[in-house]
Amino acid sequence: MIAAESLWREYRRSRDEKLKHELVLAHLSLVKYLAGRLAIKLPPYISQEDLESYGVFGLLEAVEKYNPDLGASFKAYAYSRVRGAMIDEIRRLNWIPRTMWQKIQQLNITREKLQKELGDQVTDDTLAAAMGIKVSELHKLAGQANLLAVSSLDETVPVACGEKVHLGDIIADPLSPDPLDIIEGDEGRRMLAQAIEELPQKDLTVLSLYYQEGLTLKEIGKVLEVSESRVCQIHTRALKRLRDKLEQVETTVKCKPVKQRN
């Protein structure tokens, strides 16, 4: 205890960063403890790790402002600071009213209970009856719950042929020229035609059979006497080559100097 008081007084005197780091590390368990307790009622878009990050900021502030001469223990002083930092951040991120959040929690709890009792096939009528609300109210509440579903742009999603891409890569950039607008120009059409001509013959065949003849990948595989997965690889490779060429066109459009009107 004496050693701890001596450490605090030395930090108050010197404000040495090494001592501050040592004090923070010594009390990280308090952050984890509080995060674990608050995590029980967290909104789905905030993880316990997020809470711990917010709590560390509160702990840093507590270390900087704590005065051992006032008689209170640091643990008691830091408890309110760390917990307050976590709750403030939860409130800042939680954009729905408290009453709505409570209803959504009730919906999730009721659904889980019914699924355990009746299996996965829980109808809207059964769920609404269990909650004592109308089916229309249930649909409205479910819609509000869906608004809380937050996805990471780094999350991968499946596209054609089972290929997976990052969600951020398929979101349209409002500041970027529309590819259709680009290829509508004479230069764009010329470069696209040139890009198609430069594709290997097998790539051209796959694109032609798929987009012009309307064959499935499995049917194209039978025509070319290769597996469906191989056709998928060729199709993906061909689209990537064309996409790269269109990006070159887009860069050319962006960098092209604007003609000054007289």
TrEMBL record:
Q: Which Gene3D superfamilies match?
A: 1.10.1740.10, 1.20.140.160
Question: Which GO molecular-function terms appear in the entry?
Answer: DNA binding; DNA-directed RNA polymerase activity; sigma factor activity
Q: Which GO terms describe its biological process?
A: DNA-templated transcription initiation
One Pfam annotation reads Sigma70_r4
- List the InterPro entries hit by this protein, alphabetically: RNA_pol_sigma-70_dom, RNA_pol_sigma70, RNA_pol_sigma70_r2, RNA_pol_sigma70_r4, RNA_pol_sigma_FliA_WhiG, RNA_pol_sigma_r2, RNA_pol_sigma_r3/r4-like
Q: Does the keyword Transcription apply?
A: yes
Q: Where is the RNA polymerase sigma-70 domain?
A: 216-242
Q: Which keywords annotate this record? A: DNA-binding, Sigma factor, Transcription, Transcription regulation
Question: Known NCBIfam families for this protein?
Answer: FliA_WhiG, PRK06986.1, sigma70-ECF
The name under which this protein is listed is RNA polymerase sigma factor FliA
